[in-house]
Amino acid sequence: MPSAGSAVAQDQLDATFTALADPTRRAIVARLARGDATVNELAAPFDLTLPGISKHLKVLERSGIISRTRHAQFRPCHLEAGALEPAAAWIEDNRRIWAERFDKLDAHLRDLQRGPAGDPGRTPPEKPAPPEGRAPSNERNGQ
Amino acid sequence: MSNSAAGPAELVFTRVFEAPRELVFECMTQPEHLTHFWGPAGTSAPVEHITLDPRPGGVFETVMINDADGSRYPTRAVYDEVAPPERLVWTEAHSGMTVTVTFTDLGGIRTGVEIRQVNVPEFARSPEAQAGFRTSLDRFAGYLAALSAGPRTRSTP
User: Fold this and answer.
1) B151: which chain A residues are within 8 Å (Cβ-Cβ)?
2) Nearest in space to A108 (alpha carbons), one of B85, B24, B112
3) What is the pLDDT of residues B101-149, one digit of tens each?
4) Minimal Cα–Cα distance from B127 to chain A, Å?
5) A7 touching B, CB under 8 A?
6) What's the confidence (pLDDT) of residue B48?
7) Less CB within 10 Å around the terminal CB: N or C of chain A?
8) Which H or E element spans position B75?
9) Closest residue, chain B, to A81 (C-alpha)
């Protein structure tokens, strides 16, 4: 992929994806997207002990995805949504590249087959479709 | 679906084409076809820069050129598996990603193409990711994008 991966800090991407590898942590992120929450509030829906939830929060905090207020009594967790941008951008970039390739391939296949909707007077730029049932071969080195 | 099975991060894209499977497969393995679609919008993939040898261990090299400024994006991969007209697998040298393309005959002249990318940039090297990443990244992408577009106070560099 041309731009995917190279322009962004790989370590940060790794940390972000690692942190998001766990379904509980993704659910925590989803909850925090609606607003800050305390550890108790976050633990409630997950049937997790406080130490259990704290482990997840530490991973998210280390990766920069969430921050916690240091001095407030209940130390509410806050989503640092900006930390997700490189990961989201990488995935979207990769998706876009394939989507655009597939759009072009779709058009190319239509040209090749010259369906009823195509221009009947036009000669396809490539050779026509190969016959069905052609024997598999490994010798397809760009003819 | 559980997080107990080991599995690397993966991205999955699918598309259905109105064409016979053999033809779609040939489009993915012949330079004179690839040049028509390999470069995403705003780029081209000149046929003279496409080198491929579709057999295990064979190379798959392309250069995508930005139409606007002429920037070049060479890619280099090696085929792991070539099974016409069903499956193609290659591993990219620049990213380490392994890409599996599966062609499914859907009847009539419809062909389903699935692109499955694993080892999404080194994320899988972490044991934690190996153990936990069972959700397809692409489904999570829109969600992430929505989150990053939402309100925020400051971003972490």
Assistant:
1) 81
2) B24
3) 999 999 989 999 999 987 665 544 444 433 333 344 544 555 555 555 5
4) 9
5) no
6) 97
7) C
8) strand B72-83
9) B148
Domain ranges of chain B: 10-144
Q: Which of A6-10, A51-55, A75-79 has the lowest mean pLDDT?
A: A6-10
Instruction: Record the tokens describing residue B32, joined without a space.
Output: 């004179």
Q: Which CATH architecture has domain A1-113?
A: Orthogonal Bundle (1.10)
Q: Is the peptide bond before B8 cis (omega within 30 degrees of 0)?
A: no
Q: Tell me, yes or no, if the pTM score tops 0.95.
A: no
Which chain A residue has its CA at the smallest distance from B130's CA?
Answer: A21
pLDDT value, residue A6:
41
What does the alpha-carbon distance between residue B76 and residue B59 come to, in Å, rounded to a whole number?
Answer: 7
Query: Rg for chain B (alpha carbons), in Å?
Result: 18
Q: How sure is the predictor about B93, in pLDDT bands with cuts at 50, 70 and 90? A: confident
Write down the CATH number for the domain with range B10-144.
3.30.530.20
Reported ipTM = 0.76
Q: Which residue of B has its CA nearest to A12?
A: B157
